[in-house]
Amino acid sequence: MQHSDVLDVSAFHRAAFTSVRDVGDLKFICAAPLSHLPCGLRILNAGYRCVVMERWKGRVALVTGASVGIGAAIAKELVRHGMKVMGCARDVEKIQKLAAECQTAGHSGVLVPFKCDLSNEEEILSMFSVIKAQHKGVDVCINNAGLAHPDSLLNGKTSGWRNMLDVNVVALSICTREAYQSMKERNVDDGHIIHINSMSGHRVPPGSSHFYCATKYAVTALTEGLRQELREANTHIRATCISPGLVETEFAARLLKDDPEKAAVVYSKYKPLQAIDVADAVTYVLSAPPHVQIGDVQMRPVEQLV
Ligand SMILES: NC(=O)c1ccc[n+]([C@@H]2O[C@H](COP(=O)([O-])OP(=O)(O)OC[C@H]3O[C@@H](n4cnc5c(N)ncnc54)[C@H](OP(=O)(O)O)[C@@H]3O)[C@@H](O)[C@H]2O)c1
C-alpha cells in the first residue's frame, strides 16, 4: 500500500475486501483518522489478526498433505506469517517447489519439505525424530492430509476403506499424539492441534463416499475427545477442527480418477470454496486470543445445499 492511499477512500474499500497483508500495512492504516476509513473496522479486524499472528513467528508448525490443495495453501499462509513450516506428503518435489516460491516471494518464514507416506507409522515417527533433532519440536500441528476412495459399503474394496482409515484417522491420531508429546517435553503450553475435518463429518450426503464420511465423523469425535484429554492434562494447548464443504482442489480428480468426466464437473455447478478460504480459517483459529478455544469452523460455499 502506498502512502497516498491513506486519503484514497476507494483504496480502503479495496483493502477492506482483501486483507491487510503485513504489520507494516496495519501501522500505515492506523496512522489515518478513522473518519477516513469507511470500512475501518473490517480492516482493523484483519489487521488485528495480522498482529496477533506475530506471536507464532519463528514457531514450528507441521502441515500434513502440504504438496497440493488445502495443505499447500495453509503451509504458504503460515510461512507468510513467519512460521517455520514442516510440510509433508509423498510428492515431496511439489513441496520443494512451493518452498522455493515462498522464498522468492520474500515471506518471513520458511517451508521445510518432508517426504512421508502417512499410511506408514514408521515414516511418521522418523519424521518427528528429524523435526526434533533439527527444529526442537512441533508447536502447531495441522492434520490436513486426507482422501476419499469411491468404495461403497455394499461393493467397495477393503483396501480402499483401509487406506482412508489409515490416512484420515490413524495417521491424524499418530501425528496428534506425537505433536502433543513434543509440546509436553518442551513445556510448550500454548500449542494448537487443528484437524481439517469436513462437512461430511457432520452429515451423510446421499451418493457420497460413505466410508469417507465415517472417517470424518471420527475426526469430529477425535477433536472433542482431544479437547477433553487436554483439559484433563491441565494444559492450555488447544484442539480445533475446520469443516469445509466443497473446496476446489485435486480431491475430486483423485476420488473419481476412473471417471474423469464426472470429476471435471464437480466444481462447475456453483462457486466452490478455494483452498485459501480454508487457510484463512486456520489463521483465524490460530489468531484467537489464548483463552479462546474454537471447537469447529463449519464453512460451505454459499450456494451449496447439503
Ligand atoms: N476438497 C474438498 O472439497 C474438501 C472438503 C472438505 C474437507 N476436505 C479435506 O481437506 C483435506 C485436504 O484435502 P484437499 O481437498 O486439499 O485434497 P487434495 O488436493 O487431494 O490433497 C490431499 C493431500 O493429502 C496428501 N495425502 C494423501 N494421502 C497421503 C499419504 N498416504 N501420505 C501423505 N500425504 C497424503 C496428498 O499428498 P501426496 O499425494 O503428495 O502424498 C495431498 O497433499 C482432506 O482431509 C480432505 O478430507 C476437502
UniProtKB/TrEMBL annotation:
It catalyses: 17beta-estradiol + NADP(+) = estrone + NADPH + H(+); 17beta-estradiol + NAD(+) = estrone + NADH + H(+); a 3beta-hydroxysteroid + NADP(+) = a 3-oxosteroid + NADPH + H(+). PANTHER family: DEHYDROGENASE/REDUCTASE SDR FAMILY MEMBER 11 (PTHR43115), DEHYDROGENASE_REDUCTASE SDR FAMILY MEMBER 11 (PTHR43115:SF4). It holds the Pfam family adh_short. Keywords: Oxidoreductase. GO terms for molecular function: 3-beta-hydroxysteroid 3-dehydrogenase (NADP+) activity; estradiol 17-beta-dehydrogenase [NAD(P)+] activity. Catalyzes the conversion of the 17-keto group of estrone, 4- and 5-androstenes and 5-alpha-androstanes into their 17-beta-hydroxyl metabolites and the conversion of the 3-keto group of 3-, 3,17- and 3,20- diketosteroids into their 3-hydroxyl metabolites. Exhibits reductive 3-beta-hydroxysteroid dehydrogenase activity toward 5-beta-androstanes, 5-beta-pregnanes, 4-pregnenes and bile acids. May also reduce endogenous and exogenous alpha-dicarbonyl compounds and xenobiotic alicyclic ketones. Its EC number is 1.1.1.270, 1.1.1.62. It comes from the Eukaryota. This is Dehydrogenase/reductase SDR family member 11. Belongs to the short-chain dehydrogenases/reductases (SDR) family. Pathway: Steroid biosynthesis; estrogen biosynthesis.
